[in-house]
Structure formats: C-alpha cells, structure tokens
Amino acid sequence: MIKKLVKDIVIYGGSDFIFKFINFAVFPIYANILKVSDFGVMSLVITYSSLIGIVANVGLNNAVQRFYWDKVIPENKRPSLVSTGLYVQTFWSILLIAIVLLLTYFFGQSYLEKTQIPWTYVLLCLIASVFDRIIFFGIDTIRLQLEPLKYTLLSSVKNIFSAFLCILFTIVLHKGLTGYFQGLLISYMLTTPLALFLVKKNLTFKFDWGYAKDLLKFGYPFIFAGLAYWLFSSMDRWMLSTMSNNVQVGLYDISFKFAMVISFVGAAFGMAWSPMVIKIINEDPDYRATIGRIFTYFFLIVGMLGILISMFGYELLLLTTKKDYHEARHIMPFVSMGIVFYCTTQITALGITLEKKTNYLSYFAWFTAIINFGLNYLFIPKFGAVGSAFATLISYIVLTGGYYLVMRRIHPIKTEYKKMLSILLSILLSLLFLYFLNKQEWSFYVILYKVIFLALVIIALFVTNVINIQQLKELWGKFSKRSL
C-alpha cells in the first residue's frame, strides 16, 4: 500500500513538477517584460477568481471523493454519482459567474479603478474559471479511478496549452496582461473536451436527485471553510493593495512563485493520499500507527523543502530577476514555511473527514481567518509584505494545530511527538537564522553560512533519530510485501 502511495505520488508529482518547472523557467521572461506591480494586479485578479470558484464548487469535488469508494455506493452507481456532481457544479458555476460579472460591472468599477484592475481582466479570468472547474472535476475523477497516467496526460495538456498560449499572447503578440488572461481562457477551453473524454466511463446522462442532495449536504460546509481559507490565503493581497501598494502585492506573489515547489509536493501527496487513505484504513489493522509514520516523514520532506527554498531563495532571485524583485528575499522564508504548515492539513484534517464532522473545517477556518485579518491589519502598515507573510505563517500554524486537536479527540493517530518536535524546532531555528542573515549584503560568506547551517540541521535530524534509514527500509519492506 505504501509502495503504491509513493509510486502514485511520484507520478502525480512528476508531471506537475515538469510543467511547473517550465512555468518557473519562463518566469524570468515575464519578469523582464512585466513590472512588479503587474504581478500584483495578476495576483489580485486570480485570487478574486478563486474566491468565486470556491462558491461555484459547492464542495462537490470533496463530496464525490468521499462517497465514490464508500461501501454504500454500488460500483454500477458510481457513474451516476460522478455525473450528478458534474451537472450540478457546471450549471451552478455558469449561473453564479454570470451574476458576479454583472454585479462587478455595474457596482464594482470604482473599486477596480482604485486597485488599477481593468474589468476586462476580471471578465476573461472568470469565464476561464468555468472551464477550469470542469477540468479539475475531471482530474479529481481520474484520481478516484486510481489512474495516474491519465492524470499525467490531462495535466500535461492543460499546462502545455496554458504556458504556450500565455507566452504567445503576453510576450510574442505584445498584449501584456490582457494577453495573459486570453491565453488562460483559450487553453482551458481547449483542454475541457479531453477532460470529459478521459472520464467518460464514469459519465452518464442520468441525473440522480438523491445523490445531488447527499453531495450538496456533505459538500456545502466546504464553501464556508473555503471562504475562510480564501480570507487568510488571499485576503492579504487585497489588504496589501489597499493599505500599501501593488508593488508589495507583486513581491508577495513572487515569493509564492518561488515557494511553489513545496505546494506542488503537497498537492502531489494529496492527490495520491486522499483516495488511498480509505484503503489503508480498511486493510491495515494498525493504520493509526501507519498514518502517524506517514505524517512524520511527510512533515520532514516538506519541512526540508521549506528550509531549502528559504535558504537559497535570495540566490534564485539574483540569478533570475532584476534588482526590483530582490526585496522578495525577506518575504520568502515566511511564505515557504507557511506553505509547509498548510500542507500538513491534509493529514491533520483526516479525522474530521473520516468522522464526517466537516463543520469543524468551517469553524477553525473562520477562526483562523479572523486571526489572519487582525494580524495583517496590525503588521501591514509597518512591515508591508513581510508582515503579511508572517501573519499567514501564524494562521496556518493555528489552523493545522486546531485540526490536529480535533483529530486527537474524535479519531486519533499514533503521532511520533519527539520526531515532530525536532522537525518543528529545525524550521523555527531556520527562520530565526535567515531573519538576520538576509539583512546582510550578498557575498560568498553568506552562502557558506547557509551551507554550514543546513548541514548542521541535517546532522541534528540524524542524531535525534528523525531520519532513520533502517526504519525507513523496514517500513518500505513491510508494505511492499502487503501490496503484492
């Protein structure tokens, strides 16, 4: 089971990595054409679109994932379940986005002008999001079918089209940000038919009102949780734009672009994990200990990635961007570690999902959003994007900590506390170290200090038995035999 999980993570993550690497590789081209403030505007439009997407989704992706492998759903009824979810989401997405576009056009023009966002950008991005919803529904369905190669094909086509067309319209045709959003729209339109074709065995023309009711009942709490997620993951950009300027938004967004390797690893894990964890629970009598070990090593992997990106982000900025972008080095460590803690919610929220207590997702998400709003309001005027990044880091720690406390009460796992504490201490010490080091002018000695510190962290993880090669071999061997 673990062997298959790792295999699927490699397939899911490998395809994402290739094309996200391509997107990252073309970032210096954009950086030499667009201003920092342009990235700020791009980020604001995309986050606005993601807000509408949360409501448009109605938690249906989560609901279909939850019921697809449930024993109460016969195998021959799964196409009806999937199709019902797709029909509800598509109809609702079109209706909602049409209403939002009208409201934005007639009542939001003054605010768009204040934030220097043309309405055309909003129009193109929101229409593109309708097709994007269908594509992601197809991707999630492919994951449920446990067919990672089909996922790779669909993800590849989507990313190739979007990367090529965005560059074509933005840079080659000299259309700037308008061209970027035109490229997104056309690429998503071209990819949608392929998404539907790849999941055709799980599609039917039948619509089941009973399934629709069950899916909406399970999924609608994810709207409120999603809105809260949006508030503390995207609200900061709008607060930065209002309380500071779009340059700060741009620097903040650029930091996320450099830290995306962490999120892609987390996403790859989640794509392989969510459909497989139910199988682990059903087939492994000691699944609580197994999940606890997976939690430790997942936290270790994303934590070390966070440390690496934080350590050498400045050097990446020096190599790929102009001087205007280099101030992002102060923001990147907090952003990277924030993403690390956000990735852990895929495991800390497991108990809530298994026990169908999805209301907890909303409660903690809104509580964290309030904290995030308060911290942003406090820190942005004085520290700008750095303060916003720190606020987001604290928010993600609070969120995953809250989920974990609930999991301990309603569906506990066997957590390896000493190892987890060692990893957490390594992350906190890295943040403290970089806070002072990044204030120094770049030199050879700066790199030397970073390499020495990183080596000491790795040695400490071996000494404290967090990294234990023998245990890893035993765990791998145990589940390799079981998967045969």
Task: Provide a short characterization of the protein structure.
This protein is mainly alpha-helical. It is 84% helix and 0% strand.
Kindly describe this structure.
With 484 residues, the chain is mostly helical. The protein folds into 2 domains: 1-24 and 222-484, no CATH class; 59-219, no CATH class. 84% of the residues lie in helices and 0% in strands. It is built from 22 helices and no strands. It has helices spanning 2-25, 27-33, 36-57, 60-68, 78-107, 109-114, 119-144, 148-172, 176-198, 209-219, 221-243, 246-258, 260-283, 287-320, 332-343, 345-348, 350-354, 359-383, 385-410, 417-437, 444-463, 469-483. Helix 3 crosses helix 7 and helix 7 runs parallel beside helix 9 (176-198). The model has no long low-confidence stretch (mean pLDDT 83).
Number of strands: 0
Q: C-alpha Rg, in Å?
A: 22 Å
Order of helices and strands: HHHHHHHHHHHHHHHHHHHHHH
- When the domains are counted, the total is 2
Report the uncertain regions.
none
Largest sheet: none
